[in-house]
Write a structure and sequence with these properties.
Strand content: 5-15%
Number of helices: 15
Radius of gyration: 22 Å
Bound molecules: iron/sulfur cluster
Largest sheet: 4 strands, antiparallel
Order of helices and strands: HEHHEEHEHEEEHEEHHEHEHHHHHH
Strand order of the largest sheet: 1-2-7-4
Structural class: alpha+beta
Amino acid sequence: MKPLVDEIRSAAHDEGFADVGVTPAVDSQGFSSLVQWIEHGYAGQMRYFAERLDAYRHPRGVLPGSKSIIALSYPYPRPPRSDCPVGHGRAARYTMIDDDYHDIIHPKLKRLCRHITQSCPDARARGIVDTAPLMEREVAELAGLGWRGKNTLLLNRLAGSYFFLACILVDVVLPYDTRESTAHCGVCTACLDACPTDAFVQPHVLDATRCISYWTIESRELPPVAIRSNFGDWWFGCDVCQEVCPWNRKPTRGYLESDSSVSPESSAELLSLFELDENEFRSRFRKTPMWRSKRGGLLRNAAIVLGNQRDISAIPSLLMGLNDSEAVVRAASAWALQRMPTPQSRAALGRRFAIETDPMVLTELARDEPS
Ligand code: SF4
Ligand code: SF4
C-alpha cells in the first residue's frame, strides 16, 4: 500500500491540496465534548449535529467499514484586511474564491477516490468536505496536518488557518503518518480577546449562538439585538479570530493557485442588493458561497451592516428593505432605520407599523431606544 499512498499524495498535490496526511479511522475522541456542546445549546439552530449525532462516534458513520482516512488541506487566499467603504460589507476570506468551495473540492476528491479504487479494486472510498458527520478537525490533527487552536480551528505552522479541510475515507488499511501535531498556541489568547461578540466560552469552546459567522451564514433568524452592533461591517462570515492569530501573520505560503478565479473584492457593495428581485439574486449568488444564506439572509445581513455604519445615504435602500416580502429583512431594516432617525425614516417606520402583522417585525418597530 505504500506506493498507493505515495501516488495519492502526489495526485492530491497535483489537484491543489497543500498537505496530505493519513490516519486510522478510530472512535472519535471528542464525541462526549460534542454531546456537551449540543446540550449547552451552543449549536443554536444547527440541528444537523443532533440529528446525526450517533454517526459522529466513529468514521463508520460516514463510510461503513472505514479503516483509514486521508486528510487534506486546500488553502485559500488570505490578503491583508483592506478598508471597507461605507455602503459595503465585509465577507470572510474563503468567499474570495469565486465558486462555492464544495463545487471546487468535490470533483477533486472524486478523481482521487477513482484513483484509489482503480489501484485497489476491492476498496471503497468516499470523499467529503464538511457536509458529513465526521470530526474533520480531530481527524486532520491525528493525520498530522496541524493542531486545534483555541479558536477551535485547525492551525498549521506554515499555512496558518486559512484553508479548507477535506477527507477521504477508505475501507482498507493504509500506512499511517506518524507526524506529531503539537499545539503551538502557548499562552496566546489573541483570538479569545478579539472576538467582537465574546463567542468563546473558554479556549477551544465556541458558543455559535454568539458568533457572527453563525448568524450571517447558518441562521435564518434575526440575531439578538444585544450583539447586532458588534457585527460591525461583517456581512457574510467573520475572520477576526483568524486575523489576529500570529500563525496567520506570515505572508501567504502554501497557497496554491486553484483552477477557480479569485475575486479581488474583499468587500461587497450592499445598497444595490435591495433592488434585486429573487431571480436576479439567484443568478448573482447561486454559484457562490453566499447562496447558503439565501436572499433573505443576505439582505438581513446587509441591513445590519448598514445600521452599524449609520450613513444616511443607505436610507433609500433600507426603505426598500422595510417593505420587503421577507419578514427577517423588514425586521433588520427597521432596526437599521431606527439608528438613523431622520424625518424620512421615522415617517416610513410609522407607516410600516400601521400595516405590519409579523410579531418579529412589530417588536423591532416598537423599540423605543435602538441599540
Ligand atoms: Fe468571534 Fe468572529 Fe471568530 Fe465568530 S468568527 S468566534 S464572531 S471572531
Ligand atoms: Fe492559538 Fe493565539 Fe492563534 Fe488563538 S490567536 S488560535 S490562541 S495562536
